[in-house]
Amino acid sequence: MADEIKEQAAENAAPEQNINELRQIRVDKLTAFQEAGKDPFQITTADQEYHTADVIENFDTLEGKDVSVCGRIMTKRPMGKASFLNLNDRNGKIQVYVRRDDVGEESYADFKKYDIGDIVEVKGFVFKTKTGEISIHAKSVRLLTKSLLPLPEKYHGLTNTETRYRQRYLDLIVNPDVRDTFIKRSLIIRSIRNYLDSQGFIEVETPMLVSNAGGAAARPFETHFNALNEDLKLRISLELYLKRLIVGGMERVYEIGRVFRNEGLDTRHNPEFTLMELYQAYTDYHGMMDLTENLYRHVAQDVLGTTKITYNGVEMDLGKPFERITMVDAVKKYAGVDFNEIKTDEEAKALAKEKGIEFEDRHKKGDILNLFFEEYVEEHLIQPTFLMDHPVEISPLTKRKPENPDYVERFEFFMNGWEMANAYSELNDPIDQRERFRAQEEQFAAGDEEANHTDEDFLTALEYGMAPTGGIGFGIDRMTMLLTDSAAIRDVLLFPTMKSLPNDK
């Protein structure tokens, strides 16, 4: 008993002690088990009949019955000939009562050498303590994995965000709410798939390594393929390959996958992130608005059980019809400037100077309109809003509005002041598309490193004919942030991009 209390005190002093000393104590225990023929690392399977949450939820039917659970020891309270421990698994935690007379003297002596963090199998019957806590009265406890390092922060949680992101495995062990976030992320993606599959969409996969990284305004990562002695890029979008499939007659396709953009890090941006894009033949951007509204409602109701979500204390209602407003009207509403009255690029630039909005010489009226939107409007779009009808200058893959060819049939979906999705009536005119690519090449030559390049194979596909099509791209990570009330994109990425430490290189 005295030795166990001493070891427990050493564990509790972990932040102040040399981690190597604490590790050595555990290694010595492991060596002793191995020499006694009880090496936990030789065990290949265990009896996980129930998860802890199952036992608690079904107490009325399981009371007094034998169960078997597996998990990690998170606390351990020795009491002489008996001990209590808290066991955590994927679904929750449960208290276990271990008594020497029930498990046997030799097994109990072994159990006293187990450490917080060890993974064990517990077999016993379900009961309720005098204080009313549902517990398992152990008949046997078996060591499955020896933990050689003590858990951080005295087992009350890992709060240092840098460590949490770098060592996500520790974060998941000691912070149950983090594990819940990633379980919800999985449920969100599953719900998206179920909805789209029910609407006749087919899930596909397209290349990540491409010679021409198009479909979005972003700088790509570049690499070299030795076998072909050819430079390639990591995709920045899923768009151009999915549209090829529409040309091929697949009609309704979607892909959920990683894309890569060589850009900065902040609370909403990570250089690799998860994008979902879908394309549907014989519809337009109005059809994509209806699909977006229905999809978001479905996912929220399916995963959260409600269409009202709260993010950072602000309630947003997905149950109400989403607002629809043009970019011109939005700028007029929030900036007091009517771009319908501005006729030339020079007038737009003069107005930008007057309002203190920075722009580049290459920018045209449409670019300036977008800068006004970003400066004056974006932060106000808290409730679900479709921001419609963008200028053609910033929409190289979108159909023009027939009645006003300076603008295109495009929308961005906003919530909480964030862009959540981007959608078009897809440009299927190969002649117009070639001219748009040419304009993008000119912008690239003028210094815009995010401009698109001409994709000849895509143009060839369009010349065979693509049906009128609506398309949209959703940021899965931002969607997850909103639905889980997570402050930063790193909170919804299991392994976010981090600057390498010296010993990582």
Describe this protein's structure.
- The chain has two domains: 2-156, Nucleic acid-binding proteins (OB fold (Dihydrolipoamide Acetyltransferase, E2P), Beta Barrel); 174-322 and 383-498, Bira Bifunctional Protein, Domain 2 (BirA Bifunctional Protein, domain 2).
- It starts with a helix and ends in a 21-residue tail after the last helix.
- The protein is α+β, with helices and mostly antiparallel strands.
- Strands 6-10-11-20-19-18-15-14 form an eight-stranded mixed β-sheet, with helices on both faces.
- It is 36% helix and 25% strand.
- A hairpin with a 2-residue loop joins strand 16 and strand 17 (404-408).
- The chain is elongated and about 90 Å long.
- Helix 9 crosses helix 17 and helix 12 crosses helix 14.
User: Which term fits the overall shape?
Assistant: elongated
CA(first)-CA(last) distance: 45 Å
Could you name the ranges where pLDDT drops below 50 across 5 or more consecutive residues?
none
Question: In the CATH hierarchy, what is the superfamily of the largest domain?
Answer: Bira Bifunctional Protein, Domain 2
Provide a short characterization of the protein structure.
With 505 residues, the chain is α+β, with helices and mostly antiparallel strands. It has helices at residues 2-12, 19-35, 52-57, 59-62, 100-103, 105-111, 161-166, 168-174, 176-198, 239-247, 285-304, 327-335, 345-355, 365-377, 430-445, 456-464, 476-484; strands at 66-78, 82-89, 92-99, 119-128, 134-145, 202-203, 209-210, 222-225, 230-234, 252-260, 272-281, 308-311, 314-317, 323-326, 385-388, 400-401, 404-408, 410-415, 418-425, 469-475. It folds into 2 domains: 2-156, Nucleic acid-binding proteins (OB fold (Dihydrolipoamide Acetyltransferase, E2P)); 174-322 and 383-498, BirA Bifunctional Protein, domain 2.
